[in-house]
Amino acid sequence: MEKSSEISGFYRRAPGERLKLVTDFAGLTEEEAELLRKTGALNIDQANRMVENVIGTMELPLGVATNFMVNGKDYLVPMATEEPSVIAAASNAAKMARPKGGFHVESTLPIMIGQIQLTDVEDPLAAKEKIIGEMRNILVRANEQDPVLTKLGGGAVGLDVRVVDSTVGPMVIIHLLIDVRDAMGANVINTMCEAVAPIVEELTGGKTFLKIVSNLAVHRLVRAKAVFSKEVLGGDEVVAGIIKAYAFAAADPFRGVTHNKGIMNGVIAVALATANDTRALEAGAHAYAAMDGSYRPLSSWERTGDGDLVGSIEIPMAVGVIGGATAVHPVAKISRKILGMPSARELGEIMAAVGLANNLAAMRALATEGIQSGHLKLHAKNIAATAGATEELIDKVAARLIAEKKIRIDRAKEILDELTSKK
Ligand code: MEV
């Protein structure tokens, strides 16, 4: 039987119970479950091999979003984030998407861009022609750098050449197009760019300068779409409110960027859980949002003929499931197992669905009760804990803070004194 990610009351359970459910869903081993239970899953030796000057590790909560159905398949989605409400919001929106079939996603091949900057050429247009004429040899040299990638069906597949005007004069910018398969790709791209640079110099008599991946991954795109019925959303007015909220984001970059931040809440939480490069994703997404010259929302929302709401997103998704930290971080490996060992493309597709889910949840909250009531519940718990409430008193203190609408540490301390002196 197909496993369902719709697990009722998941959020009400204790962390250990949730882990048991996830263990059963994903077939985690006892060692993997134990690694998640304890803190310090990334040990100091592993950390010391990842980056420089290590003195410790920095933990974040790892949660699981429920209810995700993507192209008809159920997923529990691991999300690492410091922000309250993000995982709950994704789960809620994914639940609301299910009656209309969940998320439908598609993606391009995982083709990334490596840039080579060529300077000091007398005739940039002639240089461009020469480089294009030598494309085959350049691609062969590039592919010699990674025979495994070519064996897997990837590798350098094309070239684009542009002449770009700059403050220091015209320069020839070569884009090496590389199918990186299941990697994020930065390493192989940089290696290939460096390897082909001497050919380019010899051909043109110019000097190559920078050789580096571009994080604007316009050829590595994911599209996700979902329909939310007006009944599930709360009626016509809610749909109308969300469409107004979207129109605001589309008309005003000050709002558009926050709209997109809500999308990235989901995308980045999955990226972190799988140890992907979050900065590459952020940079790429925001640049893509500004591709037509003004900053735009990455998603769009409209009413269907039946009065339901349909949302779609198109976003570059440079993520990998092999290499770099994804291969080293023990929790990232478990996160991938929870997702059913997806390919990089499938992972990117899931992430776009999560981004769309978080976007919908944020807009629905903003268009109805506002964002604060959801946020405040966890915030109140944090304030209660900071005021010194023990595990069994946190909920009580938080409930009083919310009821009194005074979510402040001084009030939490007073309530705590009251409760403990009564004992
Ligand atoms: C907060 O992390 C994200 C939101 O600001 C997104 C949005 O405004 O759409 C709530």
Give a structural overview.
By secondary structure, the protein is of the alpha+beta class. Helix content is 51%, strand content 19%. The protein has a 4-stranded antiparallel β-sheet with strand order 3-8-10-9. The chain has a 4-stranded antiparallel β-sheet with strand order 5-6-4-7. A two-stranded antiparallel ribbon has the order 1-2. Helix 4 crosses helix 15 and helix 10 packs across helix 15. The radius of gyration is 25 Å and the shape is globular. The model has no long low-confidence stretch (mean pLDDT 96). The chain binds (R)-mevalonate.
Could you write a compact summary of the structure shown?
The chain is α+β, with helices and mostly antiparallel strands and about 425 residues long. The protein has helices at about 15-25, 30-35, 45-50, 85-95, 125-135, 135-145, 145-150, 185-205, 230-235, 235-250, 255-275, 280-290, 325-330, 330-340, 345-365, 370-385, 390-405, 410-420; strands at about 60-70, 75-80, 105, 110-120, 155-165, 170-180, 205-215, 220-230, 300-305, 310-315.
